[in-house]
Amino acid sequence: AYDGRGIQGWTSLGESGPAPLGWVYMPEINRVPPTPAEFANPEWYNRRGRVTDWNQRDQVLYGDFPGGLKDLNTSRADVTDALIGVFEHWITQTNIDGYRIDTVKHVEHTFWSAFNGAMREHAAAGGKENFLQFGEVFDGDDALLGSYTFDGELDSVFAFSHKFQVFDDVFKNGGPTTKIEQLFRQRSTNYGTVAHPGGIGIAPTQALVNFIDNHDIPRFLWNNPEPRTLDAALTYLLTIDGIPCLYYGTEAGFAGGNDPANREPLWWGGYDRSHPTFQRIASLTRVRQQVEALRRGDFAIRWATDRVNGEEDAHVIAFERGSESSRALVVVNAGPTSSHTSFQGNDMPVGFAPGTVLKAAFPEGDARTFTVSGAGTVRVAVGPYEGLVLVP
Q1: CB 107 within 8 A of CB 152
Q2: Mutual orientation of helices 276-290 and 229-237 as an angle, nearest 10°?
Q3: How would you classify residue 14: left for phi > 0, otherwise alpha for psi between -120 and 50, otherwise beta?
Q4: How far apart (Å, rounded) are the C-alpha atoms in residues 375 and 392?
Q5: Among 245, 223, 224, CA closest to 234
Q6: Do β-strands 132-135 and 98-101 pair in parallel, antiparallel, or remain unpaired?
Q7: 164 DSSP 8-state letter
């Protein structure tokens, strides 16, 4: 277990000083000394034992990961240089376009500034621009996630706070959509608002990786009494600002619980392209290709509500996306009753000109239209768990 002094050796007479670091060679259980050889240097490790309290910042930074992963002392320049060399090697060898970086919060910020800058320089020297580096900061603290996107660090992170506060709290558990608005308000404070030099060309605020399912947490459909909530969540995922990330099996209705039950073999789904969720994702991705505004451009929330009990705008979230060539209005109902973008006679203000007729790009083939009033407002009706993408 973690010891801030470093793990101590022990004899029959008591503690005997710092314990030696030994390497196990048992390839049958994937336990072998690290390579390249310099990574077997005991001085390159913090040697404080495994994390036992994930709320203790020192343990998170300097402790070993349970399961046998020893924590490298990344404050050492030679360790930093060696890791940079390894990651540069794989860019050269494989011509990859980016890195998804694991367990970011277990390494200090100064390392990430040096590491990410070196990756950008190496990629650029090989003629590769827009090299994407995004990280897994497995934490619900939005400010902690964003802290890794300043000062030349990561281009983006997995939006765990969004997963917990929006996909779970709002879509799965019926919370108010004002939680979405609150989280987006924090974005320009918690995340970098300027593109990193030599990076992907856009600020981290515009490049967060949004997800519903992943390999470390129970699937969205696990213990979900109303599977239609996934329909609404997917419409939202594939139209909001940022980079949508789909975890295999979501399209097949996988509903596994905690790891490893959430890592079901892919073939259990039978590759059923007729599955309703597969078809929904396919339709949404087609619409994303047709409407540029859903892939890039600005983002503005037009309607959010704290009402959840069947009132006229309960569970509605609406936002506009815009680019140089297109503009779209997205309205999603995360609740079990029909709803609309109006409350007590006050309809939703939008950025479209008065008289603009909005038609449905999604659902495909939907014939409904909505006209922007002379006051620049529009009332959009949405059924239970329904989502609409409206374009002029």
Answers
A1: no
A2: 20
A3: left
A4: 17
A5: 245
A6: parallel
A7: I
Determine the average pLDDT of the residues in 49-63.
95
DSSP assignment letter at 311: -
Q: What is the pLDDT of residues 128-183, one digit of tens each?
A: 999 999 999 999 999 999 999 999 999 999 999 999 999 999 999 999 999 999 99
d(CA 213, CA 243): 14
Which of helix, strand or coil describes residue 142? helix
Kindly list the distances between the CA atom of residue 154 and the CA atoms of 54, 83, 160, 166, 352, in Å, as whole numbers in the listed order: 22, 16, 15, 23, 35
Which residue carries 């997995």 as its tokens?
158
What is this structure's pTM?
Answer: 0.94
- Return the structure tokens found at 65: 């990961």
Q: Which residues contact 170 (CB under 8 A, 6 or more apart)?
A: 176, 177, 179, 180, 317, 334
Q: Are 250 and 346 in contact (CB under 8 A)?
A: no
Helices (H), the chain: 57-62, 77-94, 109-125, 142-146, 160-162, 178-190, 229-237, 276-290
Give the orientation angle of helix 77-94 with respect to helix 109-125, to 10 degrees.
30
